[in-house]
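A favour, since you know our structure tokens better than I do. Go ahead and set the record down below.
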Amino acid sequence: MRKYFFWIIIILVVIFGATFGFHFFRNSMIARQLSKHESQHPVVSTLTVTKGSYQPVLPSVGSLVASQGIDLTSQTNGQVTKITFSSGAHIKKGDVLVHLDDRLALETYNKDKAILIYDKINYESQKALIKTNSTSQNDVDSAESTYLAQKAQVAQDKVNLDYTRIQAPFSGLLGIREVDIGEYITTSTPLVSLQQLNPMYVDFPMSSELLAKFSKGQAVNVIVSSQSKRTYTGKILAINSSVDESTRTVNVRASLNNDDESLLPGQFADVSVLLPVESSVIKIPRTAITYSLYGNAVLLVTKKTVDGKSQSIATETYVTTGDVDGDDVVILKGLSVGDIIVSSGQNKVTSGQVIDINNSFFSTDDAQSSNKSVAPQS
């Protein structure tokens, strides 16, 4: 019995000893890992400031306008007897698109033309008789006047007859047909939209204070929202001759090549008037800048020797920013060529803090801080 209790005591001692040992080992490992993380410096990537070229622009927002565009209407009232076009078709100048009932106009034309033939014969006869003094000059003049008046009437009849055949005034692209055969139309009835799409115009306002910076013939880039990855190029065609008193802006029109007719009138467009290229400016990625109400800042990296070991220190430096150039920002003041700045991971850093640099871990345009454990560069 004593031997039995002895082994029970031995087993309990072993169990308690193992439990205590495990907890002691676990706590010591946790403390070691926490100590290791507390001593590790934030890992960032950096870049060296250099100079590069920059294409300055004057931005604006405009609307696309067809070089020619109308809602086709008739010049006379009448009933539609024939339609010779399809919606969305390309047509040429002079193509007959709609026929109206021309019976009355044709009858009037033929009747007046017959009268004209008689008046002409009478006038020629009077001219022959005057040579033999067989008629008076008044009769000759009266015959001539009647003949000329009837000639003008026939010309008017011909115009009225032509009005019953509605033609395209210019070449272009038709819209959706808005009239049917048998419909009675007036001069205000819209028949179909006709747009000449090439070239395409873009109209946009510019501040009158910028008038000295652009001129006729200057290049522009245009982007429309439906094709945001495509840039259309063109040139300023005209600048309005007056300034809008309410907005102090001047309207500008540029011409764009639209061979594929991918642009349509009425679309909004982002317009950039291209200014002369600046070949020596400082640009840095937008992600390297911290924006705040107090100003825009970057983390400038300097070297400092501590206990014989060189360390990198990140110091907040305020900068004056200029135009945005794609993913970069032009720096007007605050940085010099050769400066080293933090390009990624700055969200983990406070000014004056020691940092570890690992440019292989971050991409230069990555502004997101990482939670991964990275061995610092030696």
